[in-house]
Amino acid sequence: MKRLFAAFFFLLSLSAAALAASGKQPAPAGAFVGAPPEYTRFSAAELTRGFFALAFGSDLRIGPRPRGIRRFDHPIRAHIVAGGSVDRSAAMARVIEDYARQVPNLRLSVASGNEPAGVQPVDVEVQLIDEKNFKSALLAAFGAQITKTFVARTDPQCMTSVKSSAEGDILRTVSFIIVDKGDDVFLDCAYHELLHAFGLSNHDQRNPWTTLNQKRIVGYLPVYDRALLTLLYDPRLKPGMTAAQARAALPGAIKGLSLAGTK
Ligand SMILES: [Zn+2]
What we know:
Number of domains: 1
Structural class: alpha/beta
Strand order of the largest sheet: 2-1-3-5-4
Radius of gyration: 19 Å
Shape: globular
Number of strands: 5
Order of helices and strands: HHEHEEHHEEHHH
Bound molecules: zinc ion
Number of helices: 8
Largest sheet: 5 strands, mixed
Strand content: 5-15%
Helix content: 25-40%
């Protein structure tokens, strides 16, 4: 009986070790009031698990199934299309600049929209809209059929469309971000949708650390998602890589992270 108990206890502590994120810290400056705290240290297994759950597949996919990893393969230019009844253009630019600073491999910049014709086109378009215009914006962008399928499948508050080549290169993305439902909804949408735009297409409702868990409202770039995005844009990983290829490349990329996602 005692030995049985000991074995049981050992198993329990093993599963606890599998969820060993540590280094808990309050939400960073700039987060909305009441934003959840974050963990800042993760094991290689925790990062690997999140990477495979979020960088492969999409529960909102419409169209052919992509073969593998999707990401941009060139410097990314983002453009904000101002709109809605609350002016959040400057706040949206700060979110994009936050990504640019925290994930240098994105080579991300904000295009002013005033560049002369012929310069490099926009890669990531962000449209700021009121909630009441969400459905009509989807209709205008994607047409009735895709909008109907998408809205029937989920009850979206914000959304991102990602167009990529058969080889896995992201060609262009469009995100719709709601601006008139408070700071928490805006910031959560802004950070969440940009993760999709950069290639983390999926959700994981069982992952307690990511912004791409739809049961969470985060509103900032947590260390965990920053690490996943840094891995996705690591030179050792390439667009179109299969899960098996990514599994071979990932350990080296994780070693290259500063302390596997720690600050
Ligand atoms: Zn999402």
